[in-house]
Amino acid sequence: MANETELTFEEAMAALEDIVGQLEHGDVPLEQAIDLFQRGMKLSQLCSQKLEQVERKIEMIVDEDGDTRTKPFGADFEENGGERA
């Protein structure tokens, strides 16, 4: 398998789901379960980092008073106390 940092978000999520499935099944030897858990934690962190990167890149185009400007995605949500405008 490719280096984990080279995985796409979708590949990392699929690998994480596979690990969770193996651990939930319950017939994995303890040492292997620990290794799977550690790999799952790394994949979880990778997914979180990739989501944060995408979140920073997403911007909404907002038309206010005839001026078009960009504003971070989710800004309306945060300004309205967690409610969509």
Automatic annotation (TrEMBL):
Keywords: Cytoplasm, Exonuclease, Hydrolase, Nuclease. It catalyses: Exonucleolytic cleavage in either 5'- to 3'- or 3'- to 5'-direction to yield nucleoside 5'-phosphates. InterPro entries: Exonuc_VII_S, Exonuc_VII_ssu_sf. Its main location: cytoplasm. Residues 65-85 are annotated as: Disordered. The keyword Metal-binding does not apply. Its EC number is 3.1.11.6. The keyword Transport does not apply. It is found in: Cytoplasm. Residues 76-85 have a biased composition (Acidic residues). SUPFAM superfamilies: XseB-like (SSF116842). One of its GO terms (molecular function) is exodeoxyribonuclease VII activity. PANTHER family: EXODEOXYRIBONUCLEASE 7 SMALL SUBUNIT. Heterooligomer composed of large and small subunits. NCBIfam families: xseB. Belongs to the XseB family. Bidirectionally degrades single-stranded DNA into large acid-insoluble oligonucleotides, which are then degraded further into small acid-soluble oligonucleotides. This is Exodeoxyribonuclease 7 small subunit. The lineage of its organism: Bacteria, Bacillati, Bacillota, Bacilli, Bacillales. The gene is xseB.
